[in-house]
Specification:
The model has no long low-confidence stretch (mean pLDDT 86). The chain starts with a helix and ends in a 21-residue tail after the last helix. The chain is mainly α. The chain is globular, with a radius of gyration of 13 Å. It has one domain. This is Transposase domain-containing protein. InterPro entries: IS66_C. Pfam families: DDE_Tnp_IS66_C.
Length: 58
């Protein structure tokens, strides 16, 4: 991975991808939606883990 920190970051992303799969979500759709929504949400609205995630309404 290049460094310990890079390895930790990769592990976090891989964990989110696998959790999305296990919860029946398409992982890249999940990540795209979450990353697009994060900048506009307040801390109290952060309910984006794969087991509770619902896609944003278009």
């Amino acid at each position: 991975m290049g460094s310990e920190l890079a390895g930790q970051r990769a592990a976090i992303i891989m964990s989110l991808v696998q959790s999305a799969r296990l919860n029946g979500h398409e992982p890249w759709a999940y990540l795209r939606d979450v990353l697009q929504r994060l900048p506009t949400l307040r801390n109290s609205q952060l309910d984006l883990l794969p087991h509770r995630w619902k896609p944003a309404q278009a």
